[in-house]
Every structure is written in C-alpha cells, then in structure tokens.
Amino acid sequence: MSGRSESVSTAGRRGADWLGPLLFTVYCTSYAAFVAVAAFATFAGGVPVGGLASEAVAGVPWGIVAGFGLIIGAFVLAVLYATLARTPQDGAQK
To answer: Which of 44, 60, 67, 72 is the most buried (most CB within 10 A)?
Structure first.
C-alpha cells in the first residue's frame, strides 16, 4: 500500500514542478532590476543624483527600503511556494 501512496504523492508534486522555477525567476528579475538601478541610475560622476540614493522616508534612502523589500519579498515567495506546492498527502498523519 505504501507504493501506491508514494506514486500518488509523486504525481501530486509533479503538477507543481513549474512553481519553484517560476518564483525563482520572479525573485531573480526583481534582484536584477534592483542591481541595475543601483549601478546605472543612482550616481553620476560619484555624486548621488537620484534612484536609490534619494530619500524615501525620514532620511532613509530608497536603496535601504528596496533592499528590505527584497528580503521581505523572498519570505513572501517562500511562504507562497510552501502553501501552493503542498499536496493533500503532506498534511496526513502516518
């Protein structure tokens, strides 16, 4: 009987195989945009001209706000993956 439950569990997981790479791509794209803005739109000649160097709230630059946003976004994507990739068998008692 354990062979049947393993095949059902494996089949349930195959349906969500696309989810991990998709969320990874979303995060990598967000991070690449952050790095591009930091590298190309923040400083001109060593002087902060905007982008991530400008103030957001209470003197905190946008770079700090965006960095924390990336960290929080990573946790949100992890929770999303953990929630959506679950199969009914994952919560079953053995």
So the answer is: 67
